[in-house]
Amino acid sequence: xxxxxxxxxxxxxxxxxxxxxxxxxxxxxxxAALGLLALAVFAEALAPYGATDVVGFAVDLPSSEFWLGxxxxxxxVFSRVIFGSRISLYVGxxxxxxxxxxxxxxxxxxxxxxxxxxxxxxxxxxxxLAFPPIILAMATVAVLGPNLRNTIIAIGVVQIPRFARLVRxxxxxxxxxxxxxxxxxxxxxxxxxxxxxxLPNLVSITTVQxxxxxxxxxxxxxxxxxxxxxxxxxxxxxxxxxxxxxxLLSMNPWIAVGAGSAIFVTVLIFTLLxxxxxxxxxxxxxxx
Amino acid sequence: MRRYLVRxxxxxxxxxxxxxxxxxxxxxxxxxxxxxxxxxxxxxPEAYAALRAELGLDDPLVEQxxxxxxxxxxxxxxxxxxxxxxxxxxxxFPALGRTLELAVISIVLAVVIAVPLGMVxxxxxxxxxxxxxxxxxxxxxxMPTYVLGIGLLLVFAELIPILPPGGYVPFSExxxxxxxxxxxxxxxxxxxxxxxxxxFMRVGMLEVLHADYVRTARAKGLEPRRINYRxxxxxxxxxxxxxxxxxxGLMVGGMVVIEQIFTWPGLGWLMIxxxxxxxxxxxxxAVLVSAAAFVIVNLMVDLAYSWLDPRISRS
Lengths: 288, 315
Prior knowledge:
By secondary structure, chain A is mainly alpha-helical. In chain A, about 70% of the residues lie in helices and about 0% in strands. Chains A and B meet through α5, α6, α9, α10 and α11 of A and α1, α6, α7, α10 and α11 of B.
């Protein structure tokens, strides 16, 4: 498809492509997100050393050999920062997938059926939303035991009510629209209407929320690991490295700087990605 | 207004009941009951059985639940076996006080930064001032508090050691030291929160500045200053207030990491120490109290909101 020179809007895909290429920030965000993904996938090829290999003296300052120095037992900090992207993206993806898998059906059912189903679902989400997210995640991990799987479950569960709320709101506004009424008049079952009429209309808003939740999940994982309640050593978690880096601040500040910058950049990229997708998927959004 | 007030308070109570139930469920029904958590998973079976009996964990769940709710209603938060039988309330509430101190000062700082910045960005929409404000807000928005906290610690406690790296001395003991210990955590939380609030302030102001009544005020020939302050700021501050409330609520519960970084013995710090020392009788109350604080703050914000904008309670 020729995109650059076509005068009038041809298709939604062409319009989105033009919006993406036309806006430098959007383009940059997409490239950065892909770069981050590549970093995680090709970590073995990109990192100079293994994530858990002891390759130098303990707590050495940066050198040409170890770009960010070494950590408390002599592992290369730079390599660990690269490998850390895997854990962050893995947790981000896993936790958000849990939140979507439970939150979206719950939200659709709640908005579609209304009445008792809605009341019960919304009161339960009220209760769960009353917990500050990190506290609920901490309590869950404390009870289940700290490891990678439980970290993903804890963060995912915390985000379920947020998805349910969002999807319920949109479903409510779609419930009485013509195409839903028509589907019902044609004898469509509840399940059919929810899956075939409502769900496709929720894809764009869920996608945007997905990226924002992803950023939150990365942040929460780092916070939990920082507190010693997340991913356990020797896995290279950025949060854990930040925690170690804090205690070694006077000896090699680059441990904290490396891990901290990695968290910051990742969250920034996913926050911007949320804005980008929101612009691309909804061209009528007010640009503010 | 009174009916609205009563309804909101009842709703708040309902949420608190759900919260208390959720805490009960999390700590009783999921695998690894409080006795196992307190003793560790490799404790001798006799000790485990004895503790289960002492904690009443062998009773039917319904009975345990009713006892838990009954004690809460009476305000009895129990004693902690891991803290030598100390009153849990005596541990949790002083810690909550220290967290609130940090949260209140931080929110004031955030508002002081965000209101002028957001206003200027909106009034000068599209100019370099707007761009600078937006870039700062986006950066601050993506900056995890713990990363900024450690960064500040590195600069002001390690490289240029002008501030203490954390710790806590009561104000009554050494006011100056107490204040100096507040500086870094307050700047950390305050600036990150300010970023959130600036975005809200800017959007809120823009919304109002494009409203018909502001255009009318301009057409009437009112001075821009008067329009910005009397008409725009007042109306834009209503959504801002909600956001301040939300941020405050999040802070009360979410300062766990900051308190850990700056060794500030607040509620979050207590929670972590209790998890690490397996004091689950303290953890469950601390979780409950932080959720309660969140609910109460949200309730207060809702009430303030309806007071500022009477249309809300009428609808």
